Amino acid sequence: MTPSQSVTPAKETAATGEKSDNVLSVRDITVGFGSKIILQDLDLDVRRGEVLGFVGGSGTGKSVLMRTILGLTPKRTGQISVFGHDLSTASPKERTAIERRWGVLFQQGALFSSLSVKQNIQVPMREHLKLSPQLMDELATLKLELVGLPQDAADKLPSELSGGMIKRASLARALALDPDLVFLDEPTSGLDPIGAAAFDSLIANLSSTLGLTVYMVTHDLDSLHSICDRIAVLGKKRVLAIGTMDDMMKNDDPWIKSYFRGERALRRV
Length: 269
Ligand SMILES: Nc1ncnc2c1ncn2[C@@H]1O[C@H](COP(=O)(O)OP(=O)(O)OP(=O)(O)O)[C@@H](O)[C@H]1O
Hints:
42% helix, single chain, binds adenosine-5'-triphosphate, 6-stranded mixed beta sheet, disordered N terminus
């Protein structure tokens, strides 16, 4: 079976009328640095309420794509729509409204080192909302509870937390504004297998209870198997394949085959 037989290319998904159910649509995106093209004519759809795992070899451009969607890296051509709004034609006010509806967990957490966990969680609230200090404290307490952190973590600095706690605190900050969509860049990297499994369950629970759509860059095969509804594979500057784990297991593209059915993958079963 060829890759195109076993998966649904992004363009077809849009053509079947499912577009309105896509929280995120990327069309014909090209991104490069100088003469080096990283992504070319890339298409991707992320459906409402799904957990999409994004994989690809090291240096293929997974972080570049996420940063381009977030508006942190410029694109050369193409269109990015989030919640049905084209980001390139959105007014600054519309853009701010869209950004309020997404949360981001960067690799390594990216917490502000001089702020306490509570203050970190309150950064997006201060940026986007006008709330009293008391209400912000109450909301931070709720977010800590949501991600399974003890209340005494609130006044700790990031340097006083374990790796797993840093990931949870970063997730609490990503959830500060009750987003509809979260971007997670390698959320389980650096965690031991038990911590990673616990973090996976947390993401799965949040997705099902809050109806969150999750865009997750990961190298973690356990996460891909346990919590992802679909998986997108980046390669050759585009989305090589997108579909369920079953689709990936049947795909005969050499890289996809060795990733999902290679020695390392088979060792986990
Ligand atoms: N600001 C930049 N300027 C120049 N090149 C860049 C820049 N950002 C990323 N790149 C290049 O783009 C390519 C893709 O990088 P990216 O970090 O997106 O890879 P990745 O797929 O996320 O890799 P990994 O899985 O190792 O994290 C790399 O060759 C990288 O060197």
